[in-house]
Amino acid sequence: MTTTVYIPQDSSALSLGAERVARAIQREALARGEIINIVRNGSRGLYWLEPMVEVMVAGERHAYGPVTPADVAGLFDAGFLKGKHHSLGHGRTEEIPYLAKQTRLTFARVGIVDPGSVADYLAHGGYIGLRNALSLSSAEIVNVVTDSGLRGRGGAAFPTGIKWKTVLDQAVEQKYVACNADEGDSGTFSDRMIMEGDPLTLIEGMTIAGIAVGATQGYIYARSEYPHACRALARAITAAKEANFLGQNIQGSGKHFDIELRIGAGAYVCGEETSMLESLEGKRGEVRAKPPLPAIEGLFGKPTAVNNVISLATVPVILARGAEFYRDFGVGRSRGTLPLQLAGNLKHGGLVELAFGCTLRELLYDYGGGSATGRPLRTVQVGGPLGAYIPASEFDVIVDYEALSATGALLGHGGIVAFDDTVDMGKMARYAMEFCAIESCGKCTPCRLGSTRGQQVLDDLKAGIRPDENLKLLHELMDTMQYGSLCGLGGMTPFPVRSALKHFPADFGPSRD
Amino acid sequence: MTGLSSADASTVEKIAQNFASTPGPVIEILHGVQNALGYVPAEAIAIIASVLNLSRAEIHGVVTFYHHFRSTPPGRKTIQVCRAEACQSMHGVPLEAHVKTTLGIDYHETTADGHFSLEPIYCLGNCACAPSIMVGDEIYGRVTPAVFDELIDEEKASS
Ligand SMILES: Cc1cc2nc3c(=O)[nH]c(=O)nc-3n(C[C@H](O)[C@H](O)[C@H](O)COP(=O)(O)O)c2cc1C
Ligand code: SF4
Ligand code: FES
What we know:
The complex is a heterodimer.
Chain A: E1 3-6, H1 11-15, H2 18-32, E2 36-39, E3 53-57, E4 60-64, H3 72-78, E5 89-92, H4 97-100, H5 118-123, H6 128-134, H7 138-148, H8 160-169, E6 176-181, H9 190-197, H10 199-213, E7 217-222, H11 227-242, E8 258-263, H12 273-280, E9 304-308, H13 309-321, H14 323-327, E10 330-331, E11 334-335, E12 337-344, E13 350-355, H15 360-367, E14 377-382, E15 389-391, H16 401-406, E16 415-420, H17 425-439, H18 445-462, H19 467-484, H20 488-492, H21 494-503
Parallel strand pairs in A: 1-2, 6-7, 6-9, 7-8, 12-16
Antiparallel strand pairs in A: 1-3, 3-4, 4-5, 10-11, 12-13, 14-15, 14-16
Chain B: H1 6-19, H2 26-37, H3 42-52, H4 56-65, E1 77-82, H5 85-88, H6 92-103, E2 109-110, E3 116-121, E4 133-135, E5 138-140, H7 145-157
Parallel strand pairs in B: 1-3
Antiparallel strand pairs in B: 1-4, 2-3, 4-5
The structure holds flavin mononucleotide, iron/sulfur cluster (SF4) and FE2/S2 (inorganic) cluster.
């Protein structure tokens, strides 16, 4: 009998040796005459267990990890192909508490399906959302998305349905859907996991978006830093075309929609939507002034629905199970679930999809298991390089859009980077300025020059040079950046710096070095 | 014009022609050229400009805007070290220093024997397995100085 063995092809699993493990398992099976079928799935997001190998036994998956090539013979000896006990075993995957406690809606299939297979996608509930969408009018699809309460997961949290309505309302022949897959924030990897683990969900979501707003062409703007994700996407696009889920007359519906994958070239600012559109047009990624909104004048001057990967990948479950089903999760104005990413100095880093409403502390300790280094956590940065640092004294904050912004922080794309007590916040603040200087598109002076000047002022403070004067100068500089910049890169770089200054002032003087 | 062999020049021309009719082709073409030649030579810019009927300055402006495109030939293997926050939280900064000393070069440089080029990178999406580096197209997580040394030894042995 053939046993199915799952070995992730997710970048992070590969970064920990999944490829060598796959080869070792293949070799060992051959040598022992065991007939196995290896599926290269995405990751379940339990990254401390990667490479995590799963074996299907009587319809249930059993997990072993982290596996190295040296463990493989022992796993066979112990009978892992029958789900038997081994010191690396974790029992049934679905019962691992980290996973069992989550609410996986957007990530329902990630780590489960074969990412390149339309048949497997269909077998796991794929394309039910599209089928439902095809029985609705464009306006009705937009209403479902609006009613679901879904807000953009790329950072700005703008209601997706309202954006789509603007695009739908433009009486223009040519419109576009542009998927923002530029995921540049440190501490984020949920877009990558979707693209590598369940890319057809993104493709389905974009197709529904196209039908909803009246666009027949979609673009995915993915980053060059993600070669594995780009390959997985390209494979899935081809598979969807072959199965007539993309292209002309999709499933006999009379609707057309196509997707082209475009790859960026290493510029953080190209995640900003107008810069991304410039880049998609093949130009320098200089930010455009708004208005006009991309929904009115976007790609090649045409109305464009620009959405993040997670926003689009959440649309299929909303159309499959209804607006109410999705809206019933969450708190206040933050509806549904959010795939949070636990990163940096945590024992159990990974992907945690939960309904809005848990606290940062639960995430960091109940899921994250505290620091990886065993030292006390001192701070976390939430929402990428433009997000604020939150001190340990504020870990009880609720993780939703409103509660975080009330404390001066932001949720952004849901990345949480943890630091232990050895972190020097003066250095992190300086890095924030440096990053802004490196990545500035150069269009406005406060961002371009302010970030360079900011580094010098922080250096002077560190050296103990005229602290009062320099502190005042730093604040003035940050005000100019915040209020005088065209986009969030210059405008929000002050957030991490100010929060570090506020909570850890002692790190900015000469004392620590 | 100097430097570009006629074979390389015709490669560039072919790539440019291939994409000439796609909307917004410049970055696609630059990727094609860099994948084929390892970098975007100055002479390629002139060829692309003439195929697309754009000015050289426009193409040059695109090349210089993006960190990914390089104007000089790379070493046989490019090593990219993540400098972003999550990697910093897991000893990424000392790792950067170790990489530079071991290779004897700084960022944007190539070793004298032409083996390795070193580039910074800002997040590989491997932030739960930090710190991260990329060697060629392969990604590595939880990299310590010792792990890095092993990787370099393997690289040297296999080439
Ligand atoms: C500097 C900067 C970088 C950004 N990077 C990204 C990114 O990598 N991915 C993303 O989806 N949105 C990013 N955004 C937000 C986008 O501008 C935009 O709001 C988003 O793509 C809209 O999609 P959504 O409504 O589905 O979130 C960035 C914004 C700024 C100011
Ligand atoms: S704030 Fe910076 S990145 Fe944004 S438009 Fe201005 S110069 Fe460009
Ligand atoms: S910060 Fe280094 S991989 Fe994300």
